[in-house]
Design goal:
mainly alpha, 2 domains, 186 residues, flat
Length: 186
């Protein structure tokens, strides 16, 4: 049992482990919008191309991880575990996290060294309205089912006012929204 948990079922050879690692490493570089956007190609590779998992096992891996609390990328670990135990987790998670972590560290260091560069200041200044716009668009989509309810609009307005006019923690409006939802007001 321990050998199965640590090294999978023994069906993967050294070339398979390398292929699994390299495929997830490549997908990490293509994951614009998060790792979840690469699920179709993960399914193609793990199920269709290699047959390491069935469709049902793959879908259950993603569903189980998405239902669990924690980072959205946990589904990669569950897929890796189902392919090859802890060694599969190591191959898939290292492949997924190594490029993004390395790029983030390099960008942070470069940004610190060039913090006074006009191009960098312009870029970061321009990203603020883009980020706010994306957050507002996400809010608009998430509010669609309750847009016609006055309580939802009031809650959004109150949250916006609190965030713009006070130094309160964002947890307070989140708690108020959770309470309003639990009471059935929104």
């Amino acid at each position: 049992m321990t050998g199965t948990l640590l090294f999978g079922t023994g069906i993967l050879g050294a070339g398979d482990w390398l292929a699994l690692f390299l495929h997830f490493l490549t997908l990490s570089l293509l994951a614009i919008g998060g790792a979840i956007t690469t699920v179709p190609d993960m399914q193609r590779f793990v199920v269709g191309q290699h047959g390491w998992l069935s469709d049902a096992q793959f879908n259950a891996s993603v569903a189980l991880a998405q239902a669990a609390p924690g980072p959205n990328v946990l589904f990669v670990a569950v897929i890796g575990f189902n392919v090859g135990g802890l060694a599969g987790v190591l191959a898939t998670m290292t492949g997924t996290l190594l490029p993004s972590t390395t790029l983030a560290m390099l960008a942070t260091r470069w940004g610190e060294r060039h913090s006074e560069a006009r191009a960098l200041r312009t870029f970061t200044t321009g990203m603020a309205p883009l980020t706010i716009g994306l957050l507002l668009a996400t809010s608009w989509i998430l509010l669609e089912p309750t847009r016609t309810q006055w309580a939802s609009a009031a809650l959004v307005g109150l949250t916006l006012w609190v965030m713009l006019r006070t130094r309160w923690s964002p947890l307070w409006p989140i708690c108020v929204g959770a309470l309003a939802g639990a009471m059935g007001w929104v």
